[in-house]
Amino acid sequence: MRIAAGVERGPAVTFSVDGVAVAGHIGETVGAALLAAGWRDLRSGPGGGGRGMFCAIGVCQECVVMADGVVREACRLPVRDGLVITTRRLRDVR
Amino acid sequence: MARATDAAPHGTADVAIVGGGIMGCSVALRLAEAGMRVVVIDRGGIGGGASGVNAGTLSLQIKRLSLMPYAIRAAEHWAEMSARLGADVKFRQSGGLNLAFTEAEEAQLVTDMTARREAGLPISFLDLPAARAREPGLSDHVRRASFCPLDGYSNPSLTGRAFRKALTARGVAMIEHDPVLGIEAGDGGYTLRLQSGNVRARRLVLAAGAWTRASVLQLGVDLPIGARVNQMMVTERAPALMNGVLGHISGLMSLKQSDNGTIIIGGGWQGEGAVGEPGRPVMDNLTNNLRFATLAMPALAPLRIVRTWYGYDGFVPDFLPVVGVLPWLREAYVIACVRGGYTIGPCMGDLLAASILGEEPALPLFDPARVATRVNTPVPA
Amino acid sequence: MCADLTADLVVLGGGPAGGHAALAASGAGLDVVLVDEGAAPGGQVWRAPGVAVSNHAALGPDHRAGEALRAALTASKVRVLAGHRAWLLQAGFTVHAAAADGAARLQAPALLLAPGTTERVIPFPGWTLPGVMGLAGATALLKGNRMLPGRKVVVAGAGPLLVAVAASILKGGGTVAAVVDLGSMPEWLRGVPAMLGRPDLILRGLGWRALLLRHGVPYLTRHAVLRAEGDNGVASVTVAPVDGDGAFEPGGNARRFEVDALLVGHGLVPASEAARSLGARHLHVPALGGWVPELDGLGRSSIAGLYIAGDGAGVRGAAAAALAGAQAGLAVAHDLGRIDAARHTAEQAPLAARVARAARFGRAMAALVRIRPGLIAAIPPEATICRCEDVTRAEIEAAFDEGARQIGQLKAWTRCGMGPCQGRFCGPTIEALAAQRGIAAEAFGPMVARPPLRPMPIGTLTGDFDPAALTLPPSLPSS
Ligand SMILES: Cc1cc2nc3c(=O)[nH]c(=O)nc-3n(C[C@H](O)[C@H](O)[C@H](O)COP(=O)(O)OP(=O)(O)OC[C@H]3O[C@@H](n4cnc5c(N)ncnc54)[C@H](O)[C@@H]3O)c2cc1C
Ligand SMILES: Cc1cc2nc3c(=O)[nH]c(=O)nc-3n(C[C@H](O)[C@H](O)[C@H](O)COP(=O)(O)OP(=O)(O)OC[C@H]3O[C@@H](n4cnc5c(N)ncnc54)[C@H](O)[C@@H]3O)c2cc1C
Ligand code: FES
Known about the structure:
A: mainly beta, Ubiquitin-like (UB roll), two-stranded antiparallel sheet, 8 strands, B: alpha+beta, eight-stranded mixed sheet, 9 helices, binds flavin-adenine dinucleotide, binds FE2/S2 (inorganic) cluster
């Protein structure tokens, strides 16, 4: 949920996650914008369970997604218009 | 309380083995099965040396031609390894490709692999489409490949755990995290000085990997053992990209995807460091290993490296194994410097054990005397 | 594109410690490059907001300190290389860093590490569910994105961040179902003498407490999370009373809260990997968060030319970090011969007393987040310890039972610590499990620190290259 008080969000952008359009604002990270959209489950762990942002500072790697074909940490990746994200599911790992 | 200097709190064994890598453990296994009282001593954990950190490639076709009979025998050992140890070492006979990128490499591939075929190794030559049928991710750089169905891999991380279990089951004593600080030859055998006290044994096997030179020197014998620093890398778990092990005719490439999806990348560009200290990466070499790997498999590029590590691989100037009786000593043996030793180790260990047991080994050993020199007063024989 | 920079000093980390180290060294005449993976300096506590903030005053003193640091760096000669992740450090010193759009190689005769900390979270069933997040991590979301981690949350764990995070969530318009604190009131009160040196922080803490009271947020002391549950993410959190050791009270009254987020943290662990990857000597000091470098009083490590400052050298808090950074920055200038002994002594003098006072406060806070053996013992066998590789406590214990005595063995045998977080999150727990078996941390060892310091894409490392230009080293004999 976005905090409203005392904040001026940057311009609105739309990016896609697994083909679904998600709204965000310049200055936000993909992880944060997804959270605001109620999207917590970002990938699967090796045993198949869902995983989401955990450390929020780029260390735990629980939030990694494919962004334009590159593995990126959603918690550190800034949103931008037209960004194409796919989440990494068990089917994608051996 | 026993004084560490003169007592032998660990008792007297038939054989003391210095070094619990794949060599020492393979010898121990066979000797224990034959009824000997064996003690294995390691300064770290069993299987924590090269045998635990190597690439795990069990490729026969990349082995030296002169070692072909040993490699082929070793493949039989590996096929039974998990059953014999009573623990899964994740052996997979995946088959493997050896690649040539250039015309010159192709010529060398044909020469070298034909010779191996004549030595009894099943090998076929594949053009790029045929190679891609096995390994779809191969790049256009590949001109030709040799394929050996007996090649495979296993998981070296499990070496220590698996051998510990097997040795425990056979009553082998293991002393871990306790370096052998000194060895003395005496009348009835050898006394090994450890931090925790002394170990006495009638026979001695030095299987200390790249560290073997220091142990041998304690007995007044020098073996000119040097060490190469191999750099390893592993990616995070990845989608299925590879089917088998991948090498290159230069011997500089080592690539495979393990069962858990991580891709293990070795290579011939070396790291730096001296035996006894942690190895260090050489940036350009690390990069070159990766570049060479992506030349073969471009799909590796987006994957992330999560870990690098370094291991020491011992060698003598002729790059042949040093396996057999140590000259000038009674019933002291050495087993070291086996290139591709993770693959061939089980076979070499078995052969040396046979010799210790007084049997005729099925294949000849590699006499340490060819490289040994005496460095100080002769040890009484 | 690979930028090659040389300087007198490279500072890794632009938080309070690294930022002030860079300023002090630059002020003393050194040419300094400051590298940080964040988009702007500030580090964790003084994090730069990614989104525009219209009301700076409302954001409090941490925000203002960050703005001040960023302004000072801009006004200084320090070359700031933000958005660059250092992944390989080499003796001498060379720092290899990578950015989204290229790489950089930084060379300097002196290297100052100020990499801060990572969070310690003691596992419980359900801690891998989406929506369960670190307590410190929550501050990153709140500060950087001005985003609430959930609409209705439980805030749990130990230490001063509990109230700070709960208060921020309330101020941001969220609901806090409960604050669940391992500590007790008497434990907090024990820290008061040390806190008296920082009346500003006491006041701020009391303000937060008052806010919780006004919102009627239950504050459960001597409680811990028993489990989190939910299908696709956390939906409920069950908490129960514990004793002073963190052990759940038999028959204690468990309480369940319906939430969409659980923020939980049990302290901070110094990020010692960078220094250990260079071979700097380390000691295990639980009161400082775990493995910390052996330093003289001014940040000099066991390696000549390598300096370490801030929470990465032992958790003492932001104020101490900033001062320690300045101390180390001056020490570099002195050691490189840029300022003479007299000036060095004069400039160090006022810092020493302040850093001691600040560290005292930090240590009082650290006592609250000490590892409680009862909480470790209570981790059930089926609970995941290593998140990256899904390794359970039962698997870890089986390896111990089979004779594993060192972290390297645990790793090899179970794969714990082999995933992309490189053991940063399971390491402290496994160390605590070893301790429960009487294995000393020194014998058990820390997870080996080797490059890359963060996962690095192969393509970034190879760059574009001409295959024909790749010269192969000589092959070994093949016949
Ligand atoms: C990085 C790397 C990758 C490799 N990849 C492959 C591969 O893919 N395929 C392949 O077939 N081969 C590979 N090899 C080679 C192979 O790993 C080695 O040949 C083999 O493991 C050697 O086994 P070892 O038992 O002789 O030595 P080690 O496994 O090193 O065992 C020696 C043991 O002796 C102990 N020791 C040393 N000194 C003392 C002392 N004073 N007291 C007590 N204990 C002592 C050490 O702690 C160690 O555990 C690789 C090697 C390296 C380093
Ligand atoms: C997620 C988190 C949130 C925190 N929030 C608070 C809080 O709200 N209040 C509070 O009092 N304390 C907080 N802390 C505690 C914090 O450790 C200290 O208060 C303070 O930030 C320490 O300052 P420092 O300069 O030592 O480290 P930090 O502020 O952590 O700065 C370290 C810097 O190093 C950078 N860095 C690390 N490794 C690399 C690398 N390999 N390459 C490039 N850059 C790198 C990081 O990006 C970071 O900017 C938090 C800690 C964490 C982990
Ligand atoms: S949440 Fe930990 S890396 Fe993004």
